[in-house]
Amino acid sequence: MGLPGSTKAATAGQPYTYADNPWRGANVAPLGANIRWDVFEKGSTYLVRMLYNEKETAFKAGCRPVSRGSAFYELNELERCFGRTASGS
Known about the structure:
Elements: H1 25-28, E1 35-42, E2 45-52, E3 55-57, E4 73-74, H2 75-81
Antiparallel strand pairs: 1-2, 2-3, 2-4
């Protein structure tokens, strides 16, 4: 990901230690793993929204929400946007 302090890999001869490595994940991305996708179903339609640190977050550029300013996306649109097909390829 190229985050500050993350570009130098540890080696078998010099493994990571807290004392000699400046990387602190909590400083770079506090709550960075707090990503949630909510899926709502109505009949055969699925709507998806993403939350990052408990806040609605848009998917990547090029993905079209159900309406301007909405945090909801149709599942078919996300599959299109991320280059996925029904077969999973």
